[in-house]
Amino acid sequence: MEHDEDRAREKTAELTALAANAITNHWRAVGLKSTDAEVNSAAEAIVDAFVRVTPPEKEPVTIGLIVMSMGGRQGGRSRKPGNLMLNMRALVTTVSKAALSAKAVAAAPWTAPLAALVIWDSVSAGMSVDLSERDATVM
Questions:
Q1: Which pTM value belongs to this model?
Q2: Domain tally for the chain?
Q3: By percentage, how much of the chain surpasses pLDDT 90?
Q4: CB 3.0–4.6 Å: which of 22, 27, 81, 102 could bond 32 by disulfide?
C-alpha cells in the first residue's frame, strides 16, 4: 500500500499552526514581543523536535453500484466485487461451479466457452446483493 504523504504534510502544518498559536499566547502572557517569523520558526522547531507524523495508508479505490429509488423506498440492489466476500454462500457456490466447469473443460475442451459463461454467471450473481428498504435508506 502507498502512504498518503499529502495528509502527513497537512497534519504537520496543522500541528505547527497549533504550536504557533500556543507560543504567541504564552509570549504575550509573559510580556514578550515577537514577529510572525520568530513564532513560526519556534513552532517549526518544536514540531520537528517533538512530533513524528506517520502518513496514513491511502484508501484503496473501490468501484460499486447501488441502485435504489428516491429515499430508499422499496429497497435497492448493491453490485460490487466486495459483495462476494460479504456473502459466503455465494462465494462457496461460485467456487464449486468453477471447479465443476474446469473438470468438464479438462474432459472435453470444446466446452470451454460454456464453462466460462457458467463461471461468469455465478460471479455476476454473487456480486449482487438485494438491500432492504432500511438499508437502502441508510445508504
A1: 0.43
A2: 2
A3: 14
A4: 27
